[in-house]
Amino acid sequence: MPVHKITNSYVPPVRKEPEYHLLVDPNSGSHCNTTVLNPGTDDELHCTGYRWNAGKLFLYYTACFITLGILVLVMHWKPDWKLVLTQSPCKLEKANTVLLKDCYDRLHVSHVRKVPPEEGLPNEYLKPDCRENGYGSGAECDDSFLNKQDARVFRYFVHVNYRYYWNYSKQIFIPLWGLDDETRCIDLAENFRGYSAEEQNARLKIFGENSIEIEVPSRLRLLIDEVLNPFYIFQLLSTIYWFVDEYTSYASCIVVISAISLAISLYETRKQRVTLRDMVSSSNSTEVTVIRDTGESETISASLLVPGDVIVIPPIGCIMSCDAVLTAGNAIVSEGILTGESVPVTKIPISHHDNEEEVYHIDFHRRFTLFAGTHVIQTRYYEKTDVTAVVVRTGFSTLKGELVNAILFPKPMDFKFYQDAFKFVLVMASIAVCGMVYGIYAQIIDGQETEEVILRGIDIITIVVPPSLPAAMTVGTIYAQNRLKHAGLFCISPPRINVSGKLKLFCFDKTGTLTEEGLDLWGVVPVEGDRFQSVVTAPDVLPRGPLLASMASCHSLTKIDGELTGDPMDLKMFAATKWVLLEAGRDTSKFNLISPTIVKPVTKETYLEAMSPDEVPYEIGIVRQFHFSSSLQMMSVITRTLGSRHMDLYAKGAPEKLMSLCLDSSVPDDFHEVLERFTIQGFRVIALAHKKLKKLQWHQAQRAKRGELERELSFLGLLVMQNTLKPETTPVISELRKAVIRTVMLTGDNMHTAISVARDCGMVEPEHYVIMAVASPPEENKPASIHWEYAITPTAELSDSESSDTFVAEKEKLHNSYQEIVLEQVIAPCYHIAINGRSWTIIREHFPELIPKVVMKGTVFARMSPEQKVQVVEELQDLGYIVGMCGDGANDCGALKTAHAGISLSEAEASVASPFTSKVPNITCVPILMREGRCALVTSFGVFKYMALYSMIQFISVLILYAYNTNFGDMEFLYIDLVITTTVAVFMGYTKSYHKLVAKRPYGSLVGIPTLFSVISQIVVQAGAQIGVLLYLISRPGITRDPVPKGEFDPVTWESTAIFTVSSFQYIFLAALFSKGPPFRKPFYTNYLLLACLLLLGSFSLVVLIWPVEKISDFMELYRIPDEFMSFRWMMLCFVVGNFLISFIIEVFIIDSKLLKKIFRLCCKKRRPKNRYKVIEQELNALPDWPPVNEVTYAQSNDQDHTADDSIS
């Protein structure tokens, strides 16, 4: 379904019905035929209604008959034109077809479908006016379409696999949501009891089948669709012309080549469709058990599920076929196929929720949600109760469906190269028309027959716009894709390879991308008497007490097939205690016991105390778990120690969050100072807390609300984890920095930790400073503000040996390890901005004018939600950056899709939305992609220029020969078109990429001045050489030319042979000149296939010119130049050599010269940079006092900015 953006990552939003804009006719006051759907989102659609018009239909079919079906073919390419020609605009309520225009200005035509009403049709989805109180609130309406006299059918249309239905009360089409649309959590937990078979069938007609069907067209259908492509139509018409013109040899070769190309294309297209279908079909063919409204169970096909169905999750697990909310029991789920995380996660029921009015949102209630495509390993239940879940989304509306849709309907790529290529072809077509007019005129004057005039005119068009041009341009990309595949980098969107050649900025996730996935326990910092104690590097030696108990019990670990599994950090923490975890009973029934999970020490000294032989064993039972919540930034458990008369609550989470829930008397005074000193060293710090629950009983513990328990805690200490950089990270970042590729970090981790990692890997250079933008929301009588402050720069790291000293001594050492910042030494450009997700949201809302500056100087974006990562990438793109993104988890999926070139380091299904997937789990793939992208882009430029020159050279040759009533013979055309041009164009892309990245970037525009100057100057030079040879031929005494009868063509003439010989060399040496090497590709001579090809072709052309063989001359239809004219042959060779030298000087010494660039700048009078980010960079360089460090910037009030001094001690 269309995604509603969430602007606040820490407060779950209540989805409101979008304010749909229904346009009104100002004259009549009635509703118009156009409206805006999904306003303000990336899925915004302008919807216009149309209705069949009998008169238009008659005229349309008449025109199709008159044009012999040509109009049908055009309408196949432009269905929106057909809509306008056959239907008339009308009100949306009467439309049977809608024209949709998306935010990328693409047009789509969808037909409105109708479903007759059925008994049991779900009213709650058909009366959106009543949903303001939430589903199950008891509000009733009588204005749904079932109760209206004129509403007899359910009307909807499908756009990109999502349904939009007609709401009669709002008089508009709106998206058809499932239970993720304003359904309260408490309703999901208590109010759904299942549907009868009749109700389910009625809902099925509304929501459609629960399947993600990827249509695999038949081979015949694929063939027809491919053949009807404009490129193949043009090629087909050209081939027909060549057969009619008796150019059978070349036409036959093109038919064979096209057939092979078509067969390969059809095979690859069908193979990709089958692969995608097989990948998503695992959840389509399953059977599920549903609970009916009578309480009975029934097994049905998963395709029949609808939102609201109650399903039973089997004890042995299953593959989920829908998105469902767990309502009873727990489930251990592997979400690796979606998120890339190899660690199973535990899903808990939504039964006990703090806020009864809280609305279910799938992004903020993931811990309760089972997603389609994920593998439920096993379930656990209480007593004999089934593990049940309520279906909330089905089909393409599921998370898996959204990922598949991202592949089927990718975001259009706005790349200048492809836009310019189309413009260039249009220019060439215009030239062809002009040449055709001249050719027709010349032949009419010469008295040619009408049939011959038409054929020669068409011939010019096929010369100037070669049918092989699109295929030739993809050669470089195909070779690059194969090389990437061998390097372990797979691509599902080949055009993105060329885009990668223009990347100017690369974003990276931190954990698992720049750093190792796992965390190592560095030490524990206990608190006693509101003071931090010595760092303990071996937690198992801690005395028995709340701190050790919290490390042993406050986690979500479980055993699967006897193996302890869970979050890697929890595993490290628990392993450090050297305790054991016991779970009684079978895996699927562990909730039958009062204390399902027990943790206890394994050493005799801690397990039993010798002083009291009758003392009970020291065991802790985990009574209840409050799982980790990203919004709360913490988790907690209720435990009971064997022999104790009370229960305990242990909590762990983000230090700042846990501190706010603790008693002030238990928190050390230097909490922030100590925390900061660890985080800026790159450590990940987790806080631990405890609370005695003296009056809590078992049944109360199971029903207590989380918010009532997680307060007034006692602070226990800090858990210090170390996350090391991957060994490949720093060298790659260094390589990118040398190539002037800007690097940015987008992470969900702590800001100080992220800054430390940025310094360690080289994103922030040692001599540069980091300025933190800390924003605060508006308060009473105080506007929103931004506090700009320097991040402290560490110059030394803690060692393990230092951790054994007293903490007082450590604090002194840490204090001495920081560099004092002298403000006078700070140079304005040498700084980086760091910002967290909370501040980002505030600045976007209250300081939107600062966003471009923050993004321009931002290097570290910490505590960012997935949606905020997407926002940062989009802001960078708005500045004119070509942006790359590298990440390894589902939280990076949105940014990977949004970026111009996204690389997923995970092979999970979430990665299918990313253009590139790396099998190598580190960022070495980034420079490889950029090198291959640059190579492919330069190759595409070279091939395009070569094909353009090939067309223009042949165009000039033919126009010259037309003036002498002659032309090339079929074998001459075949030699040029097939042997030289096609072979050379294929081998030009075989040159491999250069071995290193350089600061220079390849050109990205085909209509840029350097490219145009190169093409135009080479056209002039080649035309000059041909005309020069012709003039020399005419002026040469003793050469007698047999007159060609009027109205006839003779291919065997002095003129045709001379022009053919010279042009043959031109095609050959231009291929070498356009195959440029360093700094983006390896030297030309390393492409052995192309080198050998050019040497063979050059040798053959030289033999034909200097030492012609009679049989070859006759076969090629060449005029045999007498031996007494040997000097003429050598003179032609001199023309060729001179032609080559001039072309070589232009292409090698002039095109890339700095002098030419200066001349271009002077001629163009370029005053401001083209890219917006360069303009902002210039503005920032002119503002040495921005950002105002040690000051506070307030939101605009009365059109003024206010800053205040706020010195940092």
Automatic annotation (TrEMBL):
Question: Which residues are in the P-type ATPase A domain?
Answer: 284-406
Q: Which reaction does it catalyse?
A: ATP + H2O = ADP + phosphate + H(+)
Q: Which Enzyme Commission number(s) are listed?
A: 7.2.2.-
Q: Where in the cell is it found?
A: Membrane
Q: How does it sit in the membrane?
A: Multi-pass membrane protein
Q: Which PROSITE patterns match?
A: ATPASE_E1_E2
Into which EC class is this enzyme placed?
translocase
The transmembrane residues are 58-77, 249-267, 421-441, 453-480, 937-961, 973-991, 1012-1034, 1054-1075, 1087-1108, 1128-1151
Q: Which residues are in the P5B-type ATPase N-terminal domain?
A: 42-167
Q: Which residues form the Cation-transporting P-type ATPase N-terminal domain?
A: 193-240
InterPro entries to which the protein is assigned, alphabetical:
ATPase_P-typ_cation-transptr_N (IPR004014), ATPase_P-typ_cyto_dom_N (IPR023299), ATPase_P-typ_P_site (IPR018303), ATPase_P-typ_TM_dom_sf (IPR023298), ATPase_P-typ_transduc_dom_A_sf (IPR008250), ATPase_P-type_domA (IPR059000), HAD-like_sf (IPR036412), HAD_sf (IPR023214)
Alphabetic keyword roster: ATP-binding, Magnesium, Membrane, Metal-binding, Nucleotide-binding, Phosphoprotein, Translocase, Transmembrane, Transmembrane helix
Taken from the record, one Pfam family name reads Cation_ATPase
UniProt family annotation: Belongs to the cation transport ATPase (P-type) (TC 3.A.3) family. Type V subfamily.
The record's PANTHER family line, in alphabetical order, gives: CATION-TRANSPORTING ATPASE, CATION-TRANSPORTING ATPASE-RELATED
Q: Which protein are we looking at? A: Cation-transporting ATPase
The organism named in the record is Priapulus caudatus (Priapulid worm)
